C-alpha cells in the first residue's frame, strides 16, 4: 500500500511510519519543514497536499495543533478541511485521522474533556480535535474515513500488539486508567488501514 503520512516526524507520526514500513508498505512522509527525508508541505495547503497525494492508496493525517497560546481550533479545522479537499482532488478515498481522546464519552452526553479534573491546559487542543471530528462526520461522507482516538494518556512505550478497540466511549482498565503506548496505537492504526473495518466512524484504542 502507498501511504501519504502528513505529520510524519511527530511522536505518533514517526511510529506510524515505522509500523507501516515494517509491514512492507510504502510511506511518503510530509512535514512543514521537509526535514528527515520528508516532503515539504503545509497541511492547510490543499493544492500542495493534493499533488503529493496523487498515486497513493491512503492518506494519514497526524498533525498537532499549534501550541503558541492561540486558539488551535481554527488552524486545525483549516488544515482538516484542506486535506479533505486535497484527497478529493487527488482521487484518494481512504483517509485515516489521528484524533484526540477528549471527545470520547465517559457517560451518556458527557465527554472526557468535560470531566472535572481534565487538565485545563489541554482543553483547547482537545476541543480542536473534537471540532475536527464533527467536521469530518458532517463533510466527509463521500470518503472512506476513519478517526482514531487514543486512550486518555498516550506516550512512547512498548510495542505489545495487545490492546482493546472501542468506539465513542473512553476505555479504562480495571484500575480506572486509560492509556496506550504510541507504538501500540500505531499498530492499531495500521491494522485499520489494512483491514478497513471502521469506515465512516471513530474508533479508539487502549489497554
TrEMBL record:
<dbReference type="InterPro" id="IPR016040">
    <property type="entry name" value="NAD(P)-bd_dom"/>
</dbReference>
<dbReference type="GO" id="GO:0016646">
    <property type="term" value="F:oxidoreductase activity, acting on the CH-NH group of donors, NAD or NADP as acceptor"/>
</dbReference>
<protein>
    <submittedName>
        <fullName>NAD(P)H-binding protein</fullName>
    </submittedName>
</protein>
<feature type="domain" description="NAD(P)-binding">
    <location>
        <begin position="7"/>
        <end position="195"/>
    </location>
</feature>
<dbReference type="InterPro" id="IPR051606">
    <property type="entry name" value="Polyketide_Oxido-like"/>
</dbReference>
<dbReference type="InterPro" id="IPR036291">
    <property type="entry name" value="NAD(P)-bd_dom_sf"/>
</dbReference>
<dbReference type="Pfam" id="PF13460">
    <property type="entry name" value="NAD_binding_10"/>
</dbReference>
